[in-house]
Amino acid sequence: MREGGVARRATMLKELRQDQGAVLVLDAGRVFNVMQSLNYRERSAANVGFMKAIGYDAVGLNVRDFAHGRDFVRDTFADAGIPLLACNLLDEQGDPFVEPYVIKEFDGTRVAIIGVFSKHDARIRLPAGGAFSMGKNYDRALEGLQVLDPIESVKKAVEQIGEEAAAIIVLSQLPADQNVELAEAIPSIDLILTDVSLKELIRKLQPPDPGETRDYLVIGTTYILEPVEVKDMRGKAVAIVEAAVTGSGLTDFSLERKRVAQTIAEDPDLKKRVADFVKGLNKNPLIQRERWRKFVNHSPEKDPDSAYLGAAACAKCHQPQFAQWQTTKHAKALQTLVDDEKDAVDRCVACHATGFGWRTGFDSAEKTPGLAGIQCETCHGPGKLHAASPKDALLIRSNVQKHHCTQCHNRGAVPPIADFNETYEEYRAKIVH
Ligand code: HEC
Ligand code: HEC
Ligand code: HEC
Ligand code: HEC
Asked: Is residue 243 predicted with pLDDT exceeding 50?
């Protein structure tokens, strides 16, 4: 059993509620797993359901939560019934994309929670080690949405809230220094929960006494907290703030960061819900197929907006390459399995057809005859975006190299093959067009 997890967080929250009465549960944002697969997409959605079950009150909208598309993030939170907040993001019609703020009754006191959005963090690093920019994905997911000035937008929300709430909390996606500007511009904010490290700013602006540590800033009467989770800490720690709401700033402020340690018992109900979910997930045939996918860490495969078209579509603009390809064994690779009566065996199909396991890739000879065999898009990647904008060189893989071939020409191949290092040059010569 690992530490962390929603079932242990459930127990922690139950205990907190027993000790403290009302507890307001917030997440500044960045709750989805950005890995581009159905598996992680389903897990991300389920996690939001679990957050609802353990009583999250509101969540900020982070740019990385657009990784699975814009409808997905909005619908997932709407379905779960957790307010997703951003006061400075408008849709095409000029309406708020999600709720700007929410007011929660908390221990007899009304507290307003405002979300503020920023695009500054649209770069991610995959656990596999390969850093890449998801900027393009996010640009597409955010297309048509308008990001307004954060300080002006929070000001407007604060004015609208007026006397409705005795305290104001902001869930902020802003870069570190902009949180200080926000606190300076709007002194009535009590608490800002950020999504970025404040360490440098704290060292610069309010260095703690020697031997002491502090992970928050105080600007006027506004407390600015850095996020709970840094790197591998995701879901493995919580920050517990205790404070008295006076209507003009928080008093008796205390902050404790607590690890969701292994010693904390898992809540049996949540544990069962998680286990049932994972069982269902593993039975999902689409997710089973994902296991055999090739090119998982490559572009454009991992781009959620990409899709396979089939060689016939490429032929319209690349006739010479198509004609050459048709003469190769790759073009008949699925037929080889049909002849062997192995064309329904996922493991074989993964190496003998195009885009197997991907959402729009090969499924079966009946459903997707146009993706049979090792086609153009095996080596060059799914081509939908390229066919729509051929001049954008980033949308297709043009530099096809040996390590792309060894996705299949490797020791797992059936029947067993010779060392590909020795045959590579000869093999490459047979397929280039
Ligand atoms: C509508 C026409 C069109 C379609 C359809 C099309 N392409 Fe292209 N493709 C082009 C053009 C035009 C270029 C040259 C772009 C340039 O030189 O700027 C190109 C370039 C390429 C390149 C070389 C890129 C480079 O930078 O050297 C590859 C590889 C490629 N296409 C593969 C494909 C594949 C695979 C498909 C099918 C999924 C496909 N294309 C479909 C028009 C098309
Ligand atoms: C998605 C899997 C896959 C990838 C990627 C792949 N191949 Fe293949 N390749 C196959 C399969 C399967 C066959 C056997 C096809 C058949 O005969 O059924 C094959 C056959 C071949 C052959 C025919 C060998 C012969 O006996 O004539 C050559 C040449 C070849 N591949 C070269 C390459 C090169 C070079 C690359 C990389 C640029 C590459 N392949 C990438 C799966 C792949
Ligand atoms: C890891 C990828 C991979 C898997 C899995 C795989 N193959 Fe292949 N297969 C290849 C490659 C690559 C070749 C071409 C080898 C060469 O010619 O050097 C090939 C060639 C073949 C050939 C010979 C085609 C010919 O006439 O030259 C047959 C038959 C075949 N595969 C059947 C199967 C069956 C059946 C399965 C499932 C049990 C399977 N393959 C699983 C990669 C794979
Ligand atoms: C087995 C892998 C493989 C398959 C399948 C494949 N290509 Fe290529 N393609 C390559 C390689 C390798 C190059 C040469 C890249 C280089 O020069 O660096 C290339 C180059 C290209 C280019 C750039 C211009 C040129 O001819 O050098 C285009 C366009 C292209 N391929 C289109 C296609 C189309 C269309 C198909 C399907 C009909 C296809 N390719 C199938 C591996 C493949």
From this structure: yes
